[in-house]
Amino acid sequence: MQDTTIQPIPTIIAGLDRNQDDFDYTMTELGELVQAAGMTVAASVTQRADHADPATYFGKGKVEEMAAQARAADVPLIVVNSDLTPSQTRNLEKITKLSVMDRTELILRIFSSRARTREAKLQVAIAQEEYALPRVHPSANPLDQQGGGRGASGGGATANRGAGETQLELDKRVIRKRITHMRAELKEIMRAQATRRDRRIHQALPSVALVGYTNAGKSTMMNGMLAQYGVTDKQVEVKNQLFATLDTSVRQLQLPNHRHFLLSDTVGFVSHLPHHLVESFKATLAEARDADLLIQVVDFADPHYRQMMATTEETLAAIGVKDVPMLTVYNKADLRAGVNFPEREGMTMTLSAQDPASITLLGQTLDELLYKDYVRTSLLVPFTQGEIVNYLRDNAEVVSEHYTDDGTAITAVLSPIDRGRFARFQQAQVPSTK
Ligand SMILES: Nc1nc2c(ncn2[C@@H]2O[C@H](COP(=O)(O)OP(=O)(O)OP(=O)(O)O)[C@@H](O)[C@H]2O)c(=O)[nH]1
Ligand SMILES: [Mg+2]
């Protein structure tokens, strides 16, 4: 779908190299983020320094140089590879007479252009307004005049820049009010979802969440699993772009032995994910927090995959995901020469989400990990309780079944919950060989 709110603006990307280990990686990533926002990179500028200049972030000479370079190439926007204080942004814009965008604002724009559901839109809009609040200030911004300015709702707050302090205070109050309203609406949506989640917990289905860096292949893996094990074949969207998925999708899957589980596909992560976004996406990521098992999908074909894994783990910690067992899946192995796949070693797998044999091995692995507490159990179910036999046929791996004078003798591999539920019919217990 064509996004009309974002113009293909050429940009200069700029970063301060303070000898951080991951500096080159974050610059590469910034370029990709700029493209994901529908803009292009005309040039990349870096400056080596020990500290950022408190007033202008970059040194004065560098700022002048960037401004000249931008003017020569007709570039209206500088995107900075870090977060700027509101006054640094203002000062840079004043000196360069260009628009200046920091990393957070860029990521917020991408999320905003991708959000489709009401829930995602609210979460992004709240984060945008939180970002805008300390930045409401009278200053000229060429982007505002193009209708692409700051502020989540198309510049309601920034449109009145320059009208004096009272107007500023008024603008801030309006933003705060909008945030309050949006939070209330989001809470209502999330409450409905939590109820649905509770209901699923009552069904006692184990749940698995796909997590990881953006573009690692989470949605592709979801679709591969759906094609082989889906109860319905409702595929999710896959795109070769950053942040293709913003909403959590949950699907019910059924393994060959009739065991069901839930698989969810979630929003991808990126380094230095804006704090406000992490906060507002916490609710969406509840699926990951409440999961019985996480599958961390890693883009094994990307040279920076280790940094991406570190970022994923940091972000999971930031949203309060802890103590959930994690299966690490090195994906896109097909793009790596000399790597054998599919392979599994304990809690690590190497595979390709596009390869059916890989998906089969993943299914077998999940079966083992999710169902290790399952026990082969023999029940004698009276003929008057035929619905229990039906339940077992649909929801458990039935090993044998025959009729006796007293009812149906059925042996099935049962979860701890089902064992408790049907304890009164229990005959004997044999540990599962699985
Ligand atoms: N060659 C190859 N490409 C893959 C594989 N898995 C995914 N891809 C491609 O990688 C790109 C991103 O895949 P997605 O499944 O959308 O990634 P994602 O992790 O859901 O990304 P976000 O939703 O943006 O976080 C798409 O172009 C996929 O076709 C794989 O195993 N091999
Ligand atoms: Mg996705």
UniProtKB/TrEMBL annotation:
<comment type="subunit">
    <text>Monomer. Associates with the 50S ribosomal subunit.</text>
</comment>
<dbReference type="GO" id="GO:0043022">
    <property type="term" value="F:ribosome binding"/>
</dbReference>
<keyword id="KW-0547">Nucleotide-binding</keyword>
<dbReference type="InterPro" id="IPR025121">
    <property type="entry name" value="GTPase_HflX_N"/>
</dbReference>
<keyword id="KW-0963">Cytoplasm</keyword>
<dbReference type="InterPro" id="IPR042108">
    <property type="entry name" value="GTPase_HflX_N_sf"/>
</dbReference>
<dbReference type="Pfam" id="PF16360">
    <property type="entry name" value="GTP-bdg_M"/>
</dbReference>
<feature type="binding site">
    <location>
        <begin position="243"/>
        <end position="247"/>
    </location>
    <ligand>
        <name>GTP</name>
    </ligand>
</feature>
<dbReference type="InterPro" id="IPR030394">
    <property type="entry name" value="G_HFLX_dom"/>
</dbReference>
<dbReference type="GO" id="GO:0005737">
    <property type="term" value="C:cytoplasm"/>
</dbReference>
<comment type="function">
    <text>GTPase that associates with the 50S ribosomal subunit and may have a role during protein synthesis or ribosome biogenesis.</text>
</comment>
<feature type="binding site">
    <location>
        <begin position="212"/>
        <end position="219"/>
    </location>
    <ligand>
        <name>GTP</name>
    </ligand>
</feature>
<dbReference type="InterPro" id="IPR027417">
    <property type="entry name" value="P-loop_NTPase"/>
</dbReference>
<comment type="similarity">
    <text>Belongs to the TRAFAC class OBG-HflX-like GTPase superfamily. HflX GTPase family.</text>
</comment>
<dbReference type="InterPro" id="IPR016496">
    <property type="entry name" value="GTPase_HflX"/>
</dbReference>
<feature type="binding site">
    <location>
        <position position="219"/>
    </location>
    <ligand>
        <name>Mg(2+)</name>
    </ligand>
</feature>
<dbReference type="Pfam" id="PF13167">
    <property type="entry name" value="GTP-bdg_N"/>
</dbReference>
<feature type="binding site">
    <location>
        <begin position="352"/>
        <end position="354"/>
    </location>
    <ligand>
        <name>GTP</name>
    </ligand>
</feature>
<dbReference type="GO" id="GO:0003924">
    <property type="term" value="F:GTPase activity"/>
</dbReference>
<dbReference type="InterPro" id="IPR006073">
    <property type="entry name" value="GTP-bd"/>
</dbReference>
<feature type="compositionally biased region" description="Gly residues">
    <location>
        <begin position="146"/>
        <end position="157"/>
    </location>
</feature>
<keyword id="KW-0342">GTP-binding</keyword>
<feature type="binding site">
    <location>
        <position position="245"/>
    </location>
    <ligand>
        <name>Mg(2+)</name>
    </ligand>
</feature>
<feature type="binding site">
    <location>
        <begin position="265"/>
        <end position="268"/>
    </location>
    <ligand>
        <name>GTP</name>
    </ligand>
</feature>
<feature type="binding site">
    <location>
        <begin position="331"/>
        <end position="334"/>
    </location>
    <ligand>
        <name>GTP</name>
    </ligand>
</feature>
<dbReference type="InterPro" id="IPR032305">
    <property type="entry name" value="GTP-bd_M"/>
</dbReference>
<dbReference type="GO" id="GO:0046872">
    <property type="term" value="F:metal ion binding"/>
</dbReference>
<dbReference type="GO" id="GO:0005525">
    <property type="term" value="F:GTP binding"/>
</dbReference>
<protein>
    <recommendedName>
        <fullName>GTPase HflX</fullName>
    </recommendedName>
</protein>
<keyword id="KW-0460">Magnesium</keyword>
<dbReference type="Pfam" id="PF01926">
    <property type="entry name" value="MMR_HSR1"/>
</dbReference>
<feature type="region of interest" description="Disordered">
    <location>
        <begin position="135"/>
        <end position="165"/>
    </location>
</feature>
<feature type="domain" description="Hflx-type G">
    <location>
        <begin position="206"/>
        <end position="374"/>
    </location>
</feature>
<keyword id="KW-0479">Metal-binding</keyword>
